[in-house]
Design goal:
Belongs to the glutamate 5-kinase family. By secondary structure, the protein is α/β, with parallel strands linked by helices. The chain has 14 helices and 13 strands. The chain folds into 2 domains: 255 residues, Carbamate kinase; 93 residues, Archaeosine Trna-guanine Transglycosylase, Chain: A, domain 4, CATH 2.30.130.10. The structure holds adenosine-5'-diphosphate (ADP) and ligand VHF.
Length: 374
């Protein structure tokens, strides 16, 4: 990947709705000023920074006269459109007063899974950063509803980090990091300092969103952190309101929960997966509803039994698209069977496959660590 010299040390920082808005649902101006002050400090010190900001839907509620969080998608989208304007206004003003330009980038995850969109987005980011500006990113909620229904900006921040080859991904939340259980409901929960693998034991610690404004909860942060471990990008989840937190984390201080692969572990398939984001993929697997739910909602591996159709010619280890019955792209991943073998195993349980392919008895079609769900 072409990486201009100036991009060394790039930090992508994601801030969640629950941290950005105050108790009454208004964007918290004092918090925004403190956050931008830290970003400007890093920028002036030569560190390129990208801000991925949630909070548009929450910020737009009051502007459009909703007294509570709407539940229908068009109203949420309308709130996001109104709130995005308010947020950009606030960021641009705070950055300008510190001599830094702001560039608004609204993306959908699908924009960056198509090669042309990926390259265009990357060029825009790099040019903004070279020019000393801070790109401010959010999902383009006008055309995308996915994050209102099953995911959120934690993964968008991860995708942006991978797209730009960031050296650090920081997730600012309303909680000090990952706890052994949801600290809002379990007073005995303890902060976890370091995670080298987001396995079942780690996933079991996380509950959903803890507030009425956040959408993803800890689970979606863990999915994003898992993808980052695979891509070899260290990730920190920490309390956004803590004093000078971003500058401290970017300076290497150990706060919150840090996710990174063990030294010496190979990121090869992770890298391949991220490269796959930019490349034309080798094939396409169609999956049934059950498999779609398992990979999207539970973060499970894709098993051969859920694959209904295979197209294209690929080898074990290639990157393929995963689509649902209507052809909608839901994920991309490193496949563990060749296209020739996939024809034989699709629709079958692993124990049946094991009878005629003993070496594949425990092999998913795509392992969850190598599966990027959009
Ligand atoms: N194991 C856990 N550790 C920390 N927080 C957890 C855990 N399980 C659930 N949560 C909840 O996740 C919340 C953070 O997610 P969310 O509200 O979506 O924040 P954001 O707006 O920053 O994305 C926390 O406030 C907490 O209530
Ligand atoms: N694009 C949406 C993001 C919603 C979202 O991801 O929220 P969060 O869980 O707080 O990161 C918005 O700006 O409201």
């Amino acid at each position: 990947m072409y990486l201009p010299q100036e991009m060394d040390g790039l930090v992508v920082v994601k801030v969640g709705s629950s941290t950005l808005v105050d108790a009454s649902g208004r964007p918290d101006a004092a918090f925004i000023a403190r956050l931008i002050d830290q970003i400007a400090q890093l920028r002036h010190g030569g560190r390129p920074v990208v801000l991925v900001s949630s909070g548009a839907a929450a910020a737009g509620r009051e502007r459009l006269g909703f007294s509570a969080k709407p539940t229908d998608i068009p109203s949420l989208q309308a709130c996001a459109a109104a709130g995005q304007a308010a947020l950009t206004e606030a960021y641009a003003k705070e950055l300008a007063s510190r001599g830094v330009a702001c560039g608004q980038v609204l993306l959908t995850r699908r924009d960056v899974t198509d090669r042309e969109g990926y390259l265009n987005a990357r060029n825009t980011f790099f040019r903004l950063l070279e020019l000393g500006a801070v790109p401010v990113v959010n999902e383009n909620d006008t055309v995308s509803v996915s994050e209102f229904t099953f995911s959120d900006n934690d993964m968008l921040g991860a995708i942006v980090s991978a797209l730009l080859g960031a050296s650090l991904y920081v997730i600012l939340s309303d909680v000090a990091g990952l706890y052994t259980a949801n600290p809002q409901t379990d007073p005995a929960a303890r902060l976890v300092r370091r995670v080298t693998s987001v396995n079942d034991e780690v996933l079991a610690m996380a509950g959903g969103a803890g507030s009425s404004v956040g959408t993803g909860g800890m689970r979606s942060k863990l999915r994003a952190a898992r993808a980052m471990i695979a891509a070899g990008i260290p990730t920190v989840i920490c309390e956004g309101r803590a004093d000078n937190i971003l500058v401290r984390v970017a300076g290497g201080e150990l706060v919150g929960t840090r996710f990174e692969a063990d030294e010496g572990s190979s990121h090869e398939s992770g890298r391949k997966l991220w490269i796959g984001l930019a490349e034309v993929t080798h094939g396409r697997l169609t999956v049934d509803e059950g498999a779609k739910r398992a990979i999207v909602e539970r973060g499970a591996s894709l098993l051969p039994v859920g694959v209904t159709k295979t197209e294209g010619t690929y080898e074990e280890g290639d990157v393929v698209d995963v689509v649902d019955a209507s052809g909608f792209l839901i994920a991309r991943g490193v496949v563990r069977y060749s296209s020739e073998d996939m024809v034989r195993v699709r629709g079958l349980q692993l124990d049946v496959i094991g009878r005629f392919m003993p070496d594949k008895a425990t092999q998913p079609a795509i392992h969850r660590d190598e599966l990027l769900v959009f």
